[in-house]
Amino acid sequence: MHCYLNLSQSPKMMKSILSFLLMLTTYFSTSTYAARFDITNRCPFTVWAAAVPGGGRQLNSGQSWTLDVNQGTTGARIWARTDCRFDGAGRGSCKTGDCGGTLQCQGYGQPPNTLAEYALNQYNNLDFFDISLVDGFNVPMEFGPTSPQCSRGSKCAAAINSECPSQLRANGGCNNPCTVFRTDQFCCNSGNCGPTDYSRFFKNRCPDAYSYPKDDATSMFACPGGTNYKVVFCP
After folding, report:
1. Phi, psi (rounded to 5 degrees) for 174
2. What is the pLDDT of residues 150-167, one digit of tens each?
3. Quick one: 106 exposed, middle or buried, by C-beta within 10 A (0-12, 13-18, 19+)?
4. Mean pLDDT of 178-190
5. What's the DSSP call for residue 110?
6. Domains and CATH numbers, the chain
7. Residue closest to 177 by CA, chosen among 108, 160, 169
8. How distant, in Å, are the alpha carbons of 16, 18, 20, 22, 165 from that of 4?
9. Contact partners, residue 81, CB within 8 Å, separation at least 6
10. In Å, how far from its chain's centre is CA 226?
11. pLDDT tens across 102-123, in order?
């Protein structure tokens, strides 16, 4: 059975249908848009890149991994794992950044690990992103936009591991004081805390990165929704 609608005899209906089709086109084009994250290892050693969402990938020196991440994604992280050993089923462990002993991360990594954090298409259709040392430091990192509509990013390339205070030293990295001491002063559990001598150690070396949980003013960056990004280990 065929159904035929003569739109020429119903201009109001035609206008309604065209408006509906335009709305659908706009919805599906925006709801399926994915921001691209190009993750590159420039370290002189192998890292096992980790991403939530995204999973994980072994990156030898010079190798890259591209992720497409849906708009509206929040609480996302990208980081490097070091000195990993995995079997054929993707089970094993890493010295730093381990995520439950799996190659394909489903949860966050174990400190210390330098973090690229982001949330896409949030308030005023902006992406928000940062480099965080609140979980400590293991590998230098650069995190920033690659699209022309935005240019300001963040970088933490200091020799933090070799200069790490003795109380914060960890195997393969440098812990944040919250991980070591677990007090409100350092972890800001009450939401009311300020910088400390330990957080200033990180901030003095990486001014663009989060050094403690309330370090928003100088550490959070924003780009218009639809921006693509790069994360570089050992920039």
Report:
1. -130, 120
2. 999 999 999 999 999 999
3. exposed
4. 92
5. P
6. 11-233 (2.60.110.10)
7. 169
8. 17, 17, 19, 21, 78
9. 47, 48, 49, 50, 56, 94, 95, 96, 97, 98, 99, 109, 113
10. 15
11. 999 999 999 999 999 999 999 9
Give the separation between CA 56 and CA 134, rounded to whole angstroms. Answer: 21
Retrieve residue 105's tokens. Answer: 């991360």
Which is it for the CA torsion 214, 215, 216, 217, positive or negative? Answer: positive
CA 68 to chain centre: 12
Q: What is the pLDDT of residue 41?
A: 98
d(CA 68, CA 85): 26
What is the rounded distance in angstroms from the CA atom of residue 25 to the CA atom of residue 31?
Answer: 10
CB atoms within 10 A of CB 147: 14
Residue 14 has pLDDT above 50, yes or no: no
